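Reopening this one. Same input as before:
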Amino acid sequence: MGKPNTKQAGKKKEKGPLRKLLSFGIFLSVLYLLVTAGIMYHLIGGNYKGLMVHPSTRGVDVAEVEFKNDAGMLLKGWYSPVEDRPIVLIAHGRHQHRGQMSALYNHLFLGCRLGFLVFDFRASGESEGMLSTGGIKESQDLEAALDWLESKGHEPSQTILVAYDMGATAAMGIPDRLNRLSAVVFIGPSEGPRRNLSRVLKNMHIPITPVASLALFASQAVTGVDFKKPNQILAMGELTNPFVIFVASDTDEVSPLPYVKSLYNEVPGDPSDQKILKIFPNYPHDKLISIDKPDLARWIGSYLAKRYD
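Same output, byte for byte:
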C-alpha cells in the first residue's frame, strides 16, 4: 500500500473564475455601500457637538434658555438682552454650534451694546435631534427662535438676524418671517445640500451619478426632504422690508461670489438704502464662516451698531 501524497493533499484548491468574479462583485458592493454611507453622513449626519465655551468665561452674562420647534425637538441657547436696544438672533452653520460664536457675541454685547440670542440647531451642540438637512428643515428651528423672542417682548422690527452658511439657507426658507425683521445678514450662504454635495464630490473626483444616487435617494427617504430645494434666489425677490447684508468672498467655493451676487441682485431696492454686499478678499469658505474671526465679527458688530445708534 503506497503512502498518501501529502504534498497534493495539503495543496489548496484554487478558486474558479466564477468564484473570483463573485468575490470581486461582493467587494465592489461593500465598497459602494461604504461610499454611500459616507455620502449620507456628509448630507444628513448630525452637526458638531464639541466643547461648549460658556460666555461667562468671556465676561458675558447669559441666561440658559430652551424652546421647542414644530417637530417637538428641544433646542437650547444663550440669551442676553440689552434694555432699549435691538436683539440679534445668531444662526450658526453646518458642523458648528453656539459654543463657537464667542467673537461675534462678545463684540455685539460688550463692544456694541446689542443683545443676542444664539441657539443650537437640531442635531447640533446640546439641542435634540439626530439628523441635519442642511438648512431645509432647520427653517422650523429658526421660526421657533423668532417665536421665542417675540414671547419675550422683542418686536420683529427691533430684531436682527445674523445667519451663517446653513443658517442662511434656513433663513431663506422663511422669507415671510424675514420681512418682519429690521435687518438680515447672510454670511457665506450655502447653495443647499445637493449643490454642496456635488461640489465636494467633484473636488474628490467622484461623479454625483451613479455613485451618489443611492445616497441621495436614501437621505431624502430618511429625512423626508427634497435636497434640490430650496430656491434661494426666488426667495430673495420676496424680501421687501428688511435691510439685507450679504457677506461673501472671492475665493469661497461653497458659496461662490457669482451665486451670492445673484442673490444680492434679486433683492428689491437700491444699494446702500436697502442692501449691501461686503466682500472679504482671499477668504475660503471655512475661514469666512469661522465665527471666531475677530475682523469679520468686528465689521458685523460695528456696522450694526452704527446703523442702530
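So the earlier flakiness isn't reproducible anymore. For the record, The chain has a mean pLDDT of 85.
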